[in-house]
Amino acid sequence: MALMDATTLASGHARRSQCSLAAQLSRRFFIALLFVMPSGLPLSLFGVPAYQSDQIQIVIIAPLVGVRALQLLQRRWLDRWESTIMVFLLYCYFVSFISNSFFIPQPPDGWLPGLVLLVPLLLLFALDAFKITVKEVIDGLLIAALFAAMLVNVDRVSPIAGLDSYLHTAIHDPSLRRIVVMHNEMGFAFVILVARLLNMRTLGGALLYLAALALLSGPLFVVSETRLVIAAAVIGCMLYALLVYRSTVKALVLSVLAVIAAGLSPLIFGKYIDYAMAMGDLGDDPSVRFRAIEILHFGQLFDQTAGFGFGLMSLSPNKPNILTDALFRDAALYGAPDYWLSLVDIRIYGALYQFGYVGFVLVLGLTLIVAYRLWWCSREVAYTRRDDVGAVAATVVAFMLSPLPMNLFTAENTVTIGGMLWFLTARASREVRALRQAPP
């Protein structure tokens, strides 16, 4: 009887362990899904347009926000993290209403659908509903970035038809099949993986992270040719190593890494160096020239709003407005009929033109809060996720140290990253505060 009881207990414990592991993995894969859907993955592999994937993501987020809203009915007020992001979102909606009603008038169905584009900013509420942790978000980001990297690596060997929509003209090597997908997420993931590698104490763990970095490096540094992201990844690693990384042998580790990086640089960055030397003047770069055209184009539209911004609008080609004209028609005016004019390309300028001077300052303020608070959390030695959040903080700063600083909070391609980062900042701050208030 005793043997049977022991066997039953052991079997029950094993089942609970399996269920617990499955639950942990499912939460991380859910976060990964939220990261990949705005890019169109994985549905684009089956021929589903990216915009439909984006809409499905919003449909997923909205009910979760509703669940959290019901939970918050027990409270009288929102906390500072919740109230800050709500004020920002409401301001963006206010600008959209005023501008589309008075400055650049159009029917409600021409701009109201555009309001859903900023729903991912409410991820703080959606993820709080299920008590998602910092580690789960970081792991989900890594899963998402490595999944995209794996697809790009497979595509290099055997082209995947479902990735054709991500095909761009290669600047440095016209023969290269240049697939650009989730490059911003890859930039964040690269710095996080380097941080984890530096803090790994076991050979098996170190080999695992080296393999992950190898998987990521080709798509990020060779295939994407996205110089702003590549620079951010490199600068982010440097900032993390100098300002966050702690070790008794820090100087030795960084010296060895510097030697390795110097040896690998010609292989990884050789074509970029050769291109820069051959180009001479930055104004000769076609990407720089076209971004200048986009800044001029949207700047002229911004001038019609007296500095207030033109706000959100529907991006459906069936709803003609200044943004859909730019995406589907206006590029032909500048001799590029097969291209498009996009606020995504001009990054932080997009925040200024869409939401005016006030919106621009708010976006910079939110970015500063994210970078500073995550760095502040990384200073708590007892915090187990200090290196993860420190790596994220370093990457945010690196993306801002750019000729075109990143727009994390209003750009269509980065608003999910912004919503995730705001949640990450709030959650990490709460975890560190709880740690400091815990009795010794």
Automatic annotation (TrEMBL):
<feature type="transmembrane region" description="Helical">
    <location>
        <begin position="85"/>
        <end position="104"/>
    </location>
</feature>
<keyword id="KW-0812">Transmembrane</keyword>
<feature type="transmembrane region" description="Helical">
    <location>
        <begin position="56"/>
        <end position="73"/>
    </location>
</feature>
<feature type="transmembrane region" description="Helical">
    <location>
        <begin position="29"/>
        <end position="50"/>
    </location>
</feature>
<feature type="transmembrane region" description="Helical">
    <location>
        <begin position="228"/>
        <end position="245"/>
    </location>
</feature>
<feature type="transmembrane region" description="Helical">
    <location>
        <begin position="355"/>
        <end position="376"/>
    </location>
</feature>
<keyword id="KW-0472">Membrane</keyword>
<keyword id="KW-1133">Transmembrane helix</keyword>
<protein>
    <recommendedName>
        <fullName>O-antigen ligase like membrane protein</fullName>
    </recommendedName>
</protein>
<feature type="transmembrane region" description="Helical">
    <location>
        <begin position="175"/>
        <end position="195"/>
    </location>
</feature>
<feature type="transmembrane region" description="Helical">
    <location>
        <begin position="110"/>
        <end position="130"/>
    </location>
</feature>
<feature type="transmembrane region" description="Helical">
    <location>
        <begin position="252"/>
        <end position="273"/>
    </location>
</feature>
<feature type="transmembrane region" description="Helical">
    <location>
        <begin position="137"/>
        <end position="155"/>
    </location>
</feature>
<feature type="transmembrane region" description="Helical">
    <location>
        <begin position="388"/>
        <end position="406"/>
    </location>
</feature>
<feature type="transmembrane region" description="Helical">
    <location>
        <begin position="202"/>
        <end position="222"/>
    </location>
</feature>
